[in-house]
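Each field is set out underneath.
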Amino acid sequence: MKIAVLLGGISKEREISLRSGKRIAQALRKMGHNVDEIDVKEDFVYNIRILKQYDAVFNILHGTFGEDGRMQSILDVLGIPYTGSGVEASVLAFDKYLCNLFVERLSKDVLVVPKFLLVQEDKFHEDTISNIISSIGMPCVVKPRNEGSSIGTHVCFTVDEFEKSLKEELKNYGEAIVQEYIKGKEITVSIIDINKIPTVLPILELRPKKLFYDYEAKYTDGMTEFILPADLDEILSERIKETALDIYKSMGCKHFARVDGIVRDGRFYFLEVNTLPGMTELSDLPMSAKAYGIDFEKLVDIIITEAYKNPPFGLSKRGATR
């Protein structure tokens, strides 16, 4: 196939996208595909029609404009098959507040969504701090409503830390999520479609050398110990896999995604869904795929083949505007 790999982008995750994209392009070439790497910058929208010459697009644009439904909507209009979830699932997963509300409605006995509140800058008052603390408790987590790779995420153990972190992220983003802090085993459940069937890969346990699995722990060699498969009893492991798969299907995710959470006292505390997970040499999904018996080259070939055969917008639109 003739494939365009969309990498880079305009978000704060640009460098990770470049690393993921270049690795993907190299793997696709090894699998015999004709591949062009396209670095998406601010002016890319004016040249978007160049994508019509490709059979499929491997979208690995993390964060804003690549993962939040906007690029997906453009590719839908063009009728070009692309990797990852469609517009609705992408919007839902990238919005942590809406995603929490959605997952809360799923009935699974092992599933818990930690308590959370949305705080908006234009409605923030000094007494908001005490009201949040009384509702959520301490310690707590502050994170942007729409962001990836744990950028802007703070674990706060004191009121001063909380107030400083909240005001900082409200200034940066205008909105923030304040969530109950859950201490336990950090895990991630990766799912890929194989012949249109969502397949759950072995659960990966993350043991970061920092307080939590933040940006540095994610992308710096030696900063995290990876336990694969996760140190969980078999029954609990299967229940968590079933829960992650239910979330994936209910949200309408496609091709590949990750469901992240914390395990404590036999419960799975949901954190987020990542619809365009990292594909660097340190990324979680490729590790889980390898443990399942799928090497990196085969993994990206499976994903792009699924995208071509089963694009997020459905086969009827393919080529409609070409």
About this structure: The domain at 116-180 is CATH 3.30.1490.20 (Dna Ligase; domain 1). The mean pLDDT is 91. The chain has three domains: 2-83+308-317, 92-112+183-292, 116-180. The CA atoms of residues 192 and 199 lie 5 Å apart.
